[in-house]
Design brief:
With 330 residues, the protein is an alpha/beta fold. Strands 3-2-1-4-5-6-11 form a 7-stranded parallel beta sheet, sandwiched between helices. The chain has a two-stranded parallel ribbon with strand order 7-10. A two-stranded parallel ribbon has the order 8-13. The longest helix has 16 residues. Helix content is 33%, strand content 20%. Strand 1, helix 1 and strand 2 form a beta-alpha-beta unit. It starts with a strand and ends with a helix. The chain has 2 domains: 148 residues, NAD(P)-binding Rossmann-like Domain (Rossmann fold, 3-Layer(aba) Sandwich), CATH 3.40.50; 116 residues, no CATH class. The protein is built from 10 helices and 15 strands. The structure holds NADP nicotinamide-adenine-dinucleotide phosphate. The site of NADP nicotinamide-adenine-dinucleotide phosphate (NAP) has 26 residues, from helix 1.
Length: 330
């Protein structure tokens, strides 16, 4: 098949490119090249979609197009200008109006964004709804697969949500590790390689529909234990409660000064989505440890680039000392 990736230089787009090349397809990726390089075997068409870059991929009827953009204007333009027999749009579980867990694709969505682009990350879910509609309405639902991933991790995780814990547990000197008292919190971590391989199979089979794609349900405790198992020496957990962490200004989930993957309160429902439909369509999961091992290896290869999530060593050391003094350590 002739496959076009609109994207292809960041985590998922690169993984799809590699998987599609391995499966014997002829793969082209359109991107500026700012996020990275395309993988080996993928033809890179360098172009900026905001300044007419799509022109270079017009004139071919692609067997399949996979679009990862989140700006509705870009997606509308692609649907209008690019010809393909089958479209795959990569959306997100952020399209859902509620974070109540254990629901499926029939759950209510947020209202779509009307503007062509988001004015901030808080509009991400609305933008994804608008992008989905642009593809479904513009191409026709009989030729479109919309996939709504949950948390994606493993290699090349630019958010560091899946790399933080294995990297932290493997630190050769800082054996004490600050952790939230939330071992039973649900986690669904989807390995980017599993998602990419499955998307390529879906393209080959012309699968259509709207499907959530989430990792198998596990717990934060399991992620911490599997991360510790990858370390050469046994880490020493320093477990503190959520309220104390909030008082210290430590953020949950992601970003600077955070304890990644930790979702206090009702937000934890975000990682309890039903993955039944995707499983029925063939999505399979490798063991959690493989995903964490790959994220760790990748982070170790990367060296000293600033972390997108987690705590700085010195900050963590200070927090551990304060937790001991305040008696808030569990
Ligand atoms: N990470 C998660 O946990 C998660 C969860 C749910 C859903 N998702 C969705 O999964 C997908 C992830 O895709 P991804 O990993 O490949 O990352 P991405 O950051 O969404 O990739 C964006 C791609 O578009 C290209 N691009 C950006 N601006 C462009 C422009 N003006 N002209 C041409 N190309 C442009 C980028 O390449 P250049 O910068 O090189 O141009 C890059 O290849 C996204 O749809 C995301 O919303 C992610």
């Amino acid at each position: 098949m002739q496959i076009l990736i609109l994207g292809g230089t960041a985590q998922l787009g690169r993984a799809v490119g590699s998987a599609a090349v391995r499966a014997g397809h002829d793969v082209t990726a359109l991107a500026r090249g700012k996020s990275g390089e395309v993988p080996e075997g993928v033809r890179h068409v360098v172009g900026d979609r905001d300044t007419g870059g799509l022109g270079a991929v017009r004139g071919t009827t692609w067997d399949a197009v996979i679009e990862v953009a989140s700006q509705p204007g870009r997606v509308r333009q692609a649907v209008a200008e690019v010809e393909a027999r089958h479209w795959v749009y990569v959306s997100s579980v952020n399209v859902y109006a509620s974070v109540d867990g254990a629901t499926d694709e029939s759950a209510a969505l947020v209202e779509p964004l009307e503007a062509d682009s988001m004015s901030g990350p808080e509009e991400y879910g609305a933008a994804k709804v608008a992008c989905e509609r642009a593809v479904l309405d513009g191409v026709g639902s009989d030729r479109v697969l919309v996939v709504r991933p949950g948390l994606i991790g493993g290699p090349e995780d630019g958010t560091d949500r899946s790399s933080y814990w294995p990297y932290r547990m493997s630190h050769p000197v800082e054996r004490r590790v600050l952790m939230p008292d939330a071992v039973s919190q649900p986690v669904q971590l989807l390995d980017v390689r599993d998602l990419a391989e499955w998307l390529v199979v879906c393209m080959g089979q012309g699968v259509t529909g709207v499907v959530d794609a989430v990792g198998e349900e596990t717990t934060l405790g399991e992620v911490l234990a599997e991360s510790a198992a990858l370390a050469n020496e046994v880490p020493e957990p320093v477990v503190v409660d959520a309220q104390w962490l909030a008082e210290q200004g430590v953020n949950p989930w992601m970003g600077p000064r955070s304890l990644p993957l930790w979702l206090p309160g009702e937000m934890a429902g975000m990682m309890r989505r039903s993955g039944v439909a995707a499983r029925e369509l063939g999505l399979r999961h490798r063991p959690l440890r493989d995903t964490l091992r790959a994220a760790l290896a990748d982070a170790q290869r990367r060296g000293d680039r600033p972390w997108a999530a987690g705590l700085e060593w010195k900050d963590e050391r200070d927090l551990i000392a304060r937790a001991r003094e305040s008696g808030r350590r569990r």
